[in-house]
């Protein structure tokens, strides 16, 4: 074998080795796991503490075209295509790193595998969500028309559960603890909530779709949300105060059921 042939083979082997390394690195990046004790409520509220947006319930953008938060009607739901799939066009800011984009995409995959929701890269659609690195974790409620921002701050919101939480808002879902019948399931400790924060616990005229109250919903805030005294609980389950509130890692089965019921998915 001449020198030129040997050199060519060596270059080929180096290229294969480098490609394998990059592939393994990408797989490793995708398999990064989050700590089990990620507190969605604390992360969201901390991230939004300095936000310039007018937010309701901690992470819902105050509607500029409606007097109150209300969804569950044809005007604020995303539309089905000819294949009976609900398309939600989106863009992702170039400010996000490769790993951060993977976190967002992986959070979307549960919707794709268990519902008829399909987040699709925007081409020319007029209505779409724009996922951006802004000053907190927040979203509008449902489809508002045109470009609507879903903010996922790179330094406080890059968690699987938080991404799903904000995407659920964009689909039209409230927080669990503000649903219309919540007083049957949780007690709100008003004594530990500052008067100027009380509006965050206002019950909403929600469509509960004949589904049970879900303490484990990805949309349920934790026990100390908006507390004015460190460690004091503002939300207590009734009648069993020991019930665990909130679900840190992934949408619950009831969260998925509600999406399928609201959008008429045949999954």
UniProtKB/TrEMBL annotation:
Alphabetized Pfam families for the sequence: Astacin
Name the record gives this protein: Metalloendopeptidase
Residues of the signal peptide: 1-19
PANTHER family linked to this entry: DISCOIDIN, CUB, EGF, LAMININ , AND ZINC METALLOPROTEASE DOMAIN CONTAINING, HATCHING ENZYME 1.2-RELATED
Entries under InterPro entries matching the protein: MetalloPept_cat_dom_sf, Peptidase_M12A, Peptidase_Metallo, ZnMP_hatching_enz
Cofactor note as given: Binds 1 zinc ion per subunit.
UniProt record, GO biological process: proteolysis
Binding site for Zn(2+): 165, 169, 175
SMART domains per record: ZnMc
Organism: Triplophysa rosa (Cave loach)
PROSITE patterns (UniProt xref): ASTACIN
């Amino acid at each position: 074998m001449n020198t030129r042939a040997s050199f060519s083979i060596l270059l080929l082997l180096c290229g294969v080795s480098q490609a394998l390394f990059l592939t393994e690195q990408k797989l490793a990046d995708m398999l990064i796991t989050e700590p089990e004790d990620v507190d969605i409520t604390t992360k969201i509220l901390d991230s939004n503490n300095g936000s310039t947006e007018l937010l309701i319930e901690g992470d819902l953008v105050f509607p500029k075209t409606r007097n109150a938060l209300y969804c569950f009607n044809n005007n604020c739901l995303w539309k089905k295509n000819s294949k009976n799939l609900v398309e939600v066009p989106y863009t992702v800011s170039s400010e996000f790193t490769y790993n951060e984009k993977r976190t967002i995409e992986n959070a979307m995959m549960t919707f794709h595998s268990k519902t008829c929701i399909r987040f699709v890269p925007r081409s020319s659609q007029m209505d779409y969500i724009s996922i951006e690195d802004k000053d907190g974790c927040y979203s509008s409620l449902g489809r508002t028309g045109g470009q609507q921002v879903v903010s996922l701050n790179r330094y406080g919101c890059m968690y699987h559960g938080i991404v799903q939480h904000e995407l659920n808002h964009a689909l039209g879902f409230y927080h669990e603890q503000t649903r219309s019948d919540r007083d049957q399931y949780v007690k709100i400790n008003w004594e530990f909530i500052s008067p100027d924060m009380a509006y965050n616990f206002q019950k909403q005229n929600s469509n509960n779709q004949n589904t049970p109250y879900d303490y484990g919903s990805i949309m349920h805030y934790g026990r100390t949300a908006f507390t004015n005294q460190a460690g004091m609980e503002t939300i207590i389950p009734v009648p069993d105060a020991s019930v665990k509130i909130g679900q840190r890692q992934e949408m619950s089965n009831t969260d998925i059921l509600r999406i399928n019921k609201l959008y008429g998915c045949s999954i």
